[in-house]
Task: structure prediction
Amino acid sequence: MKKKKPSLAETVSRNIRKARLEAGMTQKELADKAGFKVSYIARLETKPQNLSLETLETICTVLRVDPYKIVLGTASINLETRQKTVLLEAMDILKRI
Result:
């Protein structure tokens, strides 16, 4: 049986948790610095769900990680500079819509 590819929401949830742990933060520390409740951060990390680009940007700013790394995960490490630029520009356009 083929293994199901994780949804984008599952990937983002997993990568938020991974980035938080790599930053050496607890869920409470991330929540406090980002201005969210701890329960919200816990839900983001455990239950894949849609989140706004604004929320993603806030979390990435606090964790000091580029949004594409949260969205694309470990594969993003090998992106060429131009690909990163295009992705960041697209995210900026979507924020303004």
Summary: Residues 81-96 form the longest helix (16 residues).
